[in-house]
Amino acid sequence: MKFNSVLSISQLLALVCSASAMFELDNSRHLSKQGRGLRKLLSKARRLDQGGDDNAEQNEADMESFLMDYSLKFMSCIPDQYLTDADNNNHYGVVLFRLCPGNKCDNKKGCSSGYADFAIDVGTYVDAYLTDQADNMNWDDNFDGGNFGQCSEYEAANDDGTQYYVGPGCTSDGSGVKMGLYEDQYCYEESSTQFETISNGISLPFYNGGLVSTNCMSCIDNDGGISEMCLDLYDESPYRCEAEFDFQHYYYDNNFEMYRYGQDNTGCTKIDVMRRPRSKFNQEAVWTDALLAIMLLVVSLAGYAFYQSWWDKQKENLEKIDDDEDSQYQLDDDDSDGDISQGEGDADAGDYEAPVEGTMA
Predict the structure, then answer these.
(1) Please, are residues 73 and 61 in contact by the beta-carbon 8 Å criterion?
(2) Could you tell me which of 76, 119, 120, 257 has the fewest CB atoms within 10 Å of its CB?
(3) Torsion of Cα atoms, 96 then 102 then 103 then 107, to 10°
(4) What pTM, to 2 d.p., does this model score?
(5) CA 217, CA 192: separation in Å to the nearest integer?
(6) Which of 82, 31, 273 is nearest to 186 (CA)?
(7) Which residues, 6 or more positions from 71, have their beta carbon under 8 angstroms from its beta carbon?
(8) From the CA atom positions of the chain, what is the Rg in Å?
(9) Which of 204, 149, 165, 196 is nearest to 18 (CA)?
(10) pLDDT tens, 150-209?
């Protein structure tokens, strides 16, 4: 479902109103209008704090002016990833979104240049999106989609002994966000129970997806100002990759625990891992691994063949050297014996005196 018209917002309002009667949720988790205003105020305060200098207001104004030329594009939703907030709470389900130049944003592909990528938990993304829709339509007093961004307990109509939870999650193909029925407080383990069987036949809104728009959304609101959704998601995303972003600003580098000025690329590696998890045997990964294995095998065989050829030549040279040494030794040995024999013969021949026959007689 897309939310680019008054009709679609009206449909959403009707679903939320019917859902509010259906869900018996914890009121402490209910996001009120005042709560949303406080969140925006705190978000703005964090942005102004960045940089830590006297030009914070100017930095804020420069960022808002820059972002007004951009559009926000939902890229994918990854169910088996999680983000940890400042209170060490894990939030399962991660939305990857992209800020594209407004004149280059395509509703299907997004953009391929001048962009920045971000990762944020699905609940925060849903909350920011529904708040933005309510604010744009000036329905703050009548529209409250805050519960749709929370993982909240659900009291089943027929108690089967299982504690259920309702909250946002990723569609099976990762192309959108849906509402799901879960059996854990983090809304991670989706239940195999059909929601209708525990709700007296009432269907779960957005069960098949469509909870948020996947089209390009301008960072300019209906009043011509900067969209709070763009500002809030930009500020609250724990991972950013601004390598293609033509904007420099102050940002906090968690790796070195210090403020820096420039492009925030501290989340590029994490986002790339989320986008292409190695545990997923997708076709591209399989072919890449197969190609690397083949290349490794070819190099190994070539190296072995080269070594074998080299060793054979070495053995041949060693055998030739041994044969030459044996031949030389044999020759020297024969010459030495001849000399000795000849010398002894000469000596004997010189000392021998023949008997005188006349004297004996």
Answers:
(1) no
(2) 257
(3) 40
(4) 0.65
(5) 34
(6) 82
(7) 99, 100, 101, 102, 105, 216, 217, 218, 219
(8) 41
(9) 204
(10) 899 998 888 788 999 999 999 999 999 999 999 999 899 999 999 999 999 999 999 999
